[in-house]
Amino acid sequence: MEIIEPTDKDKGLYHIQIIDTDKTYTRTIDLSGNAYDKAFAEFTTLKEEAYAEAKRGKVLGGLPDVVTIMEKKTLSLTCTVCGDPKPQVTWLKNGAEVYTDDQYLVSLESGKFASLTIKRVSLEDCGRYTMTVQNKYGGESVDIVVSAYKHGDTIPQAKPTLTPKSIIPPKRPIEIPGPKVVTPAPSPAPSHVSSPVGAKSPTSPKGLKSPTPARSMKSPTPTRRKSKNHFSLCGP
Fold first, then answer.
1. CA spacing 20 to 30 A to 91: which of 13, 156, 189, 231?
2. Main-chain dihedrals φ then ψ at residue 38, nearest 5 degrees
């Protein structure tokens, strides 16, 4: 059984049963209290180290271990680096940092192509160069031994004692970002429906007219009726 991303709700007693044809074996594991705290601390450490290992600065390749070059030539040391966030690259010569000047050119293109260019190499440029790639999750450094010879001389066979690639530990505490919370986009406001341009109010068809009473019809007039007291409805 494996518990992925353990939380406090996973604390408790766990029972394991192994049953065969003759007997049942039962074991109990108390995953609470001090036992849980130790297990959780180890889990957190391993998780942080795995995350840092995936994100730290790395040298992917391209650099030689040893370089031998003729004097007055141009030497370019180039390699590919990676890391998230993008790492910083530093070049050292015999332990002292190398800066860009008239002879040395230090560059980092697109955050992944690192290079050191030495113009008109001389015997004074010989030595051990170290490139360091590092971000907040750690990094690594590699050594390159540079030697030079004069025109017409026999190319020297350098046999340096190289140090293995050095791993730079991450800065503590290791920050692991939480899951991203996606905020839903607001619903668009309802659009106002307007009357089409040039629309006119409906009118009656041209051929229809208001009805008029027929000429043969007259307004009704009251008929004279007499009551028992002989009163007239039309006047005295």
1. 156
2. -65, -45
